[in-house]
Amino acid sequence: MKRLALAATAVAVLVTGCATQASDNSPTGRPSSGDRSRPSATPQPDRTTKAPGAAAGTLLVADFGADTVSFVDPDEGVVDSVRAGHAPYGLVVGDDGRAWVATAEGVAVIDTKTREREALVPYETDNLGPVTDGEYRGGGMGIALAPDGEHVYVGVNVPGGNGTLETVDTRTLKVTDTADVGRRPFDVDVSRDGREVYATDHDSFDVTVLDTDSGDTRRIEVAPYGTEGGLGSWLKPHYAAVRPSDGKLLFPFEGEKLVVLDPDTGRSTIERMTADTHQHGVTITPDGTLLAVGTGPIDPAEDEGPSLTVRTKDGKEKVIPLDGPHEDVAVSADGRTAYVTGGFTRDGYWNGITVVDLGSGDTRRLAAGERPLGIAVL
Fold it and tell me: Looking at residue 39, what is its pLDDT?
């Protein structure tokens, strides 16, 4: 099988998520921040420009190559940018219109109606290093909001070690709890009832399950190809989705395997996928349609290029080719359009979004932001 041949290559990589450390040096169109200190208090509200509140259907993207989030009209492009914090990664938007953004400096709170940064909540986690750029930077990665909107959960990367999952009270804007998780928590998700939080630990080949009542955690391995190669392996979990019908976690791997994990029992099954490409960002619609971003080949001799897999709840897949690498995906309220960010955590990213008509499969590119990663539809 082709994946066995990748193991030897993977071992040669010293420390990697999906690439070597060199991927952090990809050009961003601006100078590096250097060794900036971390905030010890919440700064005053700050925004880059003044503009009216966002219309329904506007996109909000995290500009991983800058310190902003951008408001994007899906037809016209960027209409506004607001300073969030350095190297923003994931973001989530609540029913009250506040966006929570995982940056290298802290969790930024953005009022999407006034387009102001209301606060920046510093992390409680130690040993994050200087505020800097790139896939391996310390600070927030995946982020999720509790169903009742009372807490935000952010996965915090600790360079060179295991990460943490910090809980932020959305009323007091204080960190109320910190739990240990695995290495580089790429993604964070919450159960439908809000009783569990799931941190996808990329470099540990597992998911950490947090009980929100007791604070207890347990880790479940998610490694359909095994763990050979360790930190140098390419075949790790990246992003997950909680299936609406039963609460099981869905992890796509390489456009070949979908791991369906029952977080209650720790047991998983594997279903076949068809895109044959290295997969990152996912989202799922209320009717159970899974969308998975294919970033392109890890073995150019055998793997397919970038794509978007649209998988119905009965397992039927449509694979839509994309032009160039992408990272994350969101879907319009009517379920007809997908928006796929071109930021990408590895080298080869581009500054824009691909707009995908899910019915016809037609795509178009839209200039948007600076290395956009996380995305939400307002």
Answer: 58
Instruction: Phi first, then psi: give them for residue 9, nearest 5 degrees.
Output: -65, -40
Give first-to-last CA distance, the chain, whole Å: 43
Handedness of CA 155, 159, 163, 165 (dihedral sign): negative
Measured distance CA(369)–CA(48) in Å, rounded? 13
Cβ atoms of residues 248 and 262 within 8 Å: yes
Q: What is the DSSP letter of 10?
A: H
Greatest alpha-carbon pair distance for the chain in Å reads 55
- C-alpha to C-alpha distance for 332 and 289, rounded to whole angstroms: 13
pTM of the complete model beyond 0.85: yes
CA distance 5 to 310: 28
Measured in whole angstroms, how far is the alpha carbon of residue 320 from the centre of its chain?
21
Token pair listed for 128: 């994050």
What lies within 8 Å, CB to CB, of 348 at 6+ separation is 26, 296, 324, 325
Backbone angles phi, psi at 6, to 5 degrees: -75, -20
Task: Tell me the pLDDT tens digit for each residue of 170-208.
Answer: 999 999 999 999 999 999 999 999 999 999 999 999 999
Of 243, 239, 269, 232, give the one whose Cα is nearest residue 253.
239
Task: Tell me how far the alpha carbon of residue 279 is from its chain's centroid.
Answer: 12
Are residues 60 and 376 in contact, defined by beta-carbon separation less than 8 angstroms? yes
Q: Nearest Cα to 323, choosing from 294, 291, 292?
A: 294
d(CA 38, CA 41): 9
